[in-house]
Amino acid sequence: xxxxxxxxxxxxxxxxxxxxxxxxxxxxxxxxxxxxxxxxxxxxxxxxxxxxxxxxxxxxxxxxxxxxxxxxxxxxxxxxxxxxxxxxxxxxxxxxxxxxxxxxxxxxxxxxxxxxxxxxxxxxxxxxxxxxxxxxxxxxxxxxxxxxxxxxxxxxxxxxxxxxxxxxxxxxxxxxxxxxxxxxxxxxxxxxxxxxxxxxxxxxxxxxxxxxxxxxxxxxxxxxxxxxxxxxxxxxxxxxxxxxxxxxxxxxxxxxxxxxxxxxxxxxxxxxxxxxxxxxxxxxxxxxxxxxxxxxxxxxxxxxxxxxxxxxxxxxxxxxxxxxxxxxxxxxxxxxxxxxxxxxxxxxxxxxxxxxxxxxxxxxxxxxxxxxxxxxxxxxxxxxxxxxxxxxxxxxxxxxxxxxxxxxxxxxxxxxxx
Amino acid sequence: xxxxxxxxxxxxxxxxxxxxxxxxxxxxxxxxxxxxxxxxxxxxxxxxxxxxxxxxxxxxxxxxxxxxxxxxxxxxxxxxxxxxxxxxxxxxxxxxxxxxxxxxxxxxxxxxxxxxxxxxxxxxxxxxxxxxxxxxxxxxxxxxxxxxxxxxxxxxxxxxxxxxxxxxxxxxxxxxxxxxxxxxxxxxxxxxxxxxxxxxxxxxxxxxxxxxxxxxxxxxxxxxxxxxxxxxxxxxxxxxxxxxxxxxxxxxxxxxxxxxxxxxxxxxxxxxxxxxxxxxxxxxxxxxxxxxxxxxxxxxxxxxxxxxxxxxxxxxxxxxxxxxxxxxxxxxxxxxxxxxxxxxxxxxxxxxxxxxxxxxxxxxxxxxxxxxxxxxxxxxxxxxxxxxxxxxxxxxxxxxxxxxxxxxxxxxxxxxxxxxxxxxxxxxxxxxxxxxxxxxxxxxx
Lengths: 418, 445
Known about the structure:
The complex is a heterodimer of chains A (418) and B (445).
Chain A: E1 2-6, H1 17-29, E2 36-41, E3 54-57, H2 70-77, H3 83-90, H4 118-135, E4 140-144, H5 149-159, E5 163-167, H6 171-174, H7 181-193, E6 196-199, H8 202-211, E7 219-221, H9 231-234, E8 245-250, H10 259-272, E9 276-281, H11 287-297, E10 303-307, H12 312-319, E11 323-326, H13 336-342, E12 347-350, E13 363-365, H14 370-382, H15 384-398, H16 403-417
Parallel strand pairs in A: 1-2, 1-4, 2-3, 4-5, 5-6, 6-7, 8-9, 8-11, 9-10, 11-12, 12-13
Chain B: E1 2-10, H1 33-62, E2 68-72, H2 74-83, H3 85-96, E3 100-102, H4 112-115, H5 117-135, E4 141-143, H6 151-159, E5 164-168, H7 171-174, E6 182-185, E7 192-196, H8 198-205, H9 220-228, E8 236-242, E9 246-247, E10 250-251, H10 256-269, E11 272-274, H11 277-283, E12 289-290, H12 306-309, H13 312-323, H14 325-330, H15 334-342, H16 347-350, H17 370-391, H18 398-444
Parallel strand pairs in B: 1-2, 1-8, 1-11, 2-3, 4-5, 5-7, 6-12, 9-10
Antiparallel strand pairs in B: 6-7
């Protein structure tokens, strides 16, 4: 069984949960010996882990025939892929794209991020997908999130192979129910024309069925998992220098993540207690608004902002926390509480997040139930048994949530389609 | 003659209202009156009232041959008094027939036997007084909360003057032995024990309306033939269950009431009688000793106390609760004493159990999760502890406080005694003076 996957992000250069999830899933699936994966991303950096699959960069795939010497290709692309692949791909250029802006290798440039011209980039990605689909041999197409749906569909129309789309988030989650019609259109088109839809939670599955009008039999839930912590990260120690307990919000400070509910809960707790501090880590379009809110409430002396954290800093923050809170308004899955639990941090999550479907040893509240959230924060910081229990049982629980198992479920879907 | 011994348990805890950490120190009322009333009235209507009526009919019909026993927790009695007094009325009528025995237990349906021997004693005393007052009979048989039992508890119970107790016939304790005999405690041979027959009890309590059970439907005739076909030496069949089995856990449309009504007829046909626990323990000699080093109960497959003490949350909550026991006993405020009792019900800790994750909400819990249960309970307990501490300064330790309180308590008497002494002294002085004066007068003359 060979799978052609289209993704947008890939570790270590990630911007959100999508990259982590695609990586974990592919790695988990690589445990199956008879499965090969080709993973397409817009722009590889060269330091991706290719030990268990092949990565093809869309920005290294020629769409315009250029006569380039072997040496040039070698010097330019060696750190991304075997130069042979370049010529193989070049043989499969299927139309004249010379009107497009390409570089000396005949490749289109990609940012690999979420730029303002993202629609143009997804379109270009789909053009490149045509070349890739014609070059390689595979049995099934797997596209991660809406950015890659057009590419997947293109590959499907060229080869006639079955296509699976993997919904990590929908436009309804990102916009709190006010979707951008263009994005919605792309998502709907992908879902209508694919062969099967995988959702990361029952919550997302419900959205897909109800808001995208998909038949329920076409939609399957495969919950995300989490990679075990590397020893290097495991060794990170608590660095917090304050005597108080630290309660952390960690994520993009956007509408979807419900940061204002965290501030509300913090306000209640700070007014009543002396032993708890709050940290909002991350950045996002609501950050300034949150800083103003904290100032207005008069709790700034115990409420801190860290700005964007990357890589190891995330784990340093987690390891220095006593409570992790994710008050997401609509979270398709939400992998970060699992990461917090791996670090032994008791977590509070909203019922409106997909991971609450599989987690038991966390405290769950409704995102709008600020009272309950404040109560839970107070309890974990005040009653040692509570913190201890969640810490130990939570870690035990999360250590048993493995990508391998998720991989097997995805495989079952492949087998059904092929 | 083989005899069946029915004992029904009645207990309802005072469920707590949602008590936020903001309430700590401000709000001293902890209970969810609405849901307590609602649940009590529903169960009374569905189970307690019709079951009382049925039992009364059976007792009247068979005149002295059909007997049952009850154990009713003090907190359940308190609730019934307020929300469903007709249930107590029905039980009193049953008591008047003379064929119904009432057992004693801890007032709060508490786990005090595991943590606080003094509290255990007090509660049993309080409960047995309450039973005597309500039903006009002094209980002689003790049933501990959830049939919790161990050699250590047997010791305590015997020292409190009880010679009869009932508990679970746990398989891992009995081994090859049969529960259908009277046993004695290994630590206190004078203490007789009746053991629950789990199989026959569960057939009625849990399996009665289970369609997938291969013996479904269970008829009174079939049930009695099972009991009749046991070895002839086995004489005692202890069917211990929750009273709610009649009408609530097994709803009336399952035919449970009809089954119960038919039981005595088929029993008498097969020569099987009915007795109360104390009758059985009075008339049978123990056949052997039961050794129970590890605590048992009637709960779960394991028949141990892990449902209340299975995780850190439960252990810590119980520890915080019983740590203040001694202090509470020094207080005299009635409201505090009452809250102390109501906070001890084992149910509060049962709701914190994480044993049943994933099996659905099977534990009657009013909370969304065990964590909610812990949170809420600890907030309430924090407030309660605050109130207790406000009674007397924290810096005085219990022993010293006790001495001081005794002094205060005694000082009235002391003052009276001193006053009297003073009077006496003054009196004798006056007498002396008078004598002296009269002597002087006499001298002058």
